[in-house]
Each structure stands twice: as C-alpha cells, then as structure tokens.
Amino acid sequence: MPELLEIRDLHVDVEGKRVLKGVNLTLRPGEVHAVMGPNGSGKSTLAYTIAGRPGYEVVEGDILVEGESIVDLEPEERALKGIFLGFQEPPPLPGVRLSSLVVAAVNKRMGVESLSRAADPRIFRKLVEALQKVGLGPEYAQRELHVGFSGGEKKRAEVAQALVLDPKIVILDEPDSGLDIDGVRIVASIIKELRDSGKGILLITHYARLLQYVKPDSVTVLLDGRVAARGGPELAEEIEKKGYTAVARA
Ligand SMILES: Nc1ncnc2c1ncn2[C@@H]1O[C@H](COP(=O)(O)OP(=O)(O)OP(=O)(O)O)[C@@H](O)[C@H]1O
Ligand SMILES: [Mg+2]
Fold this sequence. Notes:
Elements: E1 5-14, E2 17-27, E3 32-36, H1 43-51, E4 56-65, E5 68-69, H2 75-80, E6 83-86, H3 98-110, H4 122-133, H5 151-165, E7 169-173, H6 181-196, E8 200-204, H7 208-213, E9 218-223, E10 226-231, H8 233-242, H9 244-249
Parallel strand pairs: 3-8, 3-9, 6-7, 7-8
Antiparallel strand pairs: 1-2, 1-4, 4-5, 9-10
The site of magnesium ion (MG) has 4 residues, from helix 1.
C-alpha cells in the first residue's frame, strides 16, 4: 500500500532562493504529523508547495499522494485529489461567499459543470453544522469570505471548510495563531474529528498547547529548510521549554 502523502528529499526555490533543502516526511491516514520550527524555517513554504501554489518551484525530490507524483499538477487538480490547505493568513476574497466556494468545490469534485447551483443540496446543512461546530453563526456562510473577519474567525472558517470539503489530506498552517483559549480547544477537537475519520493531517504550529490537546503521532522540526529533529509529542514539550536551537543541536 502506498503512503497517503510522501515527501521525498524536497528542495524548493522561491523567487530564486532555496528555501527547502531536502525535506522527508510520510503521512498515513488517521495520523497527525506536527511541523514546528522558527520563523522563516520553511513551514509555510512546505504547505504551499504541497498545495501547488505558483512560484514554489520543486527543483529536486518529489511529493507523492497515494504513490503518484503530484508536482506537475495544478492546484485545482491537487484539491480534487483531496488536498486541503488552511492558510496561515487566509486572504480576503471579496465577492466570494463561503457557501459559493464550497458549492463550487463540491460540484467540481462530483464532475458537475455548473459551479453555482449545488449538485448536492445537503451541502448547505453540512456547512451550517460545520460553522456551528467552530462557533460561527450561519450568517458566515453568506458573508464574503474572510472580508472583515477577525483573526480568530478566519481560522475557525478555514477549519470549517476542511470539515465540509472532506479532503484526504488536511494541511493546517498555524490554525491556532490568533485564536482565543476556547478557539484552540474547538480547533483541537475538530482536528481529532478529522483524524478519527481517517484523514491525514499536517499540522503546522509554534505552540505545544495545541499539541497537548491533539497528541500528534510525530513531530518534525524544520530549521533553515531542513529536518533538524523528529520525535514524538515529547519533542514539542522540549521545544517549549528549551527553544528551537537547543533542541535542534541535541
Ligand atoms: N515570495 C517570497 N520571496 C522571497 N522570499 C520568500 C518568499 N516566500 C518565502 N520566502 C522566504 O522563505 C523563507 C521561509 O518562509 P516560510 O514562510 O516558509 O517560513 P515559516 O517557517 O512558515 O515561518 P513563520 O513561522 O514565520 O510562519 C523565509 O526566509 C521567507 O522570507
Ligand atoms: Mg509560516
């Protein structure tokens, strides 16, 4: 059986600058893999490269989903393969409602031409339920996505999308940044729900707090675009106590 997600010796250039310098990582269904590391170490770059954001050039290595390379696929094709990315800083999408975005994504996956009329009307109820789970009212489905959302509301809306879109691989880039205490608990419980339903989760975070709620199967520490350390949940605790540099040196 091929792995759900396999990253092999990944080297990535952004704007001509080598940002990732040989990253390996394997993710299986029902696993949470945490990625930690100081500012600028390449965590978001890894997330964007998996999602296929233009400008992130794979110069060496490969990314495989269920055994097939995805590096030549467009971002939309990767989404259809079941890759979801929750952004560190979700961009505002004026004119796009969360409900229309979700309808378009689900229709596309079902092979329906029209991106505006829901091929599966149950999606609206699913969306409202997901919003409720993250503590947002149904009116958020009709608001322009992330326009005027508070920092924490953006994070909650991203996680709600992950619930509704039912991807195989969920990449969450600092889903705990800007969240209040209740928000961290809510996001943790949703990550557990996603894990228990068999998704593979790549969880980028700076804080051990989220990882105390969601015990990750493994923790990878990136330092200057390389894997500097890898271990179990105890590694996150060690980082919180000693800082990144000490842990990477050990
Ligand atoms: N478009 C770009 N142009 C130039 N440099 C870039 C670009 N995108 C990323 N980089 C550089 O790549 C490095 C890694 O950035 P990245 O956003 O992946 O870090 P990170 O680990 O996510 O940090 P943080 O914890 O602050 O979110 C940084 O030095 C950053 O300045
Ligand atoms: Mg980042």
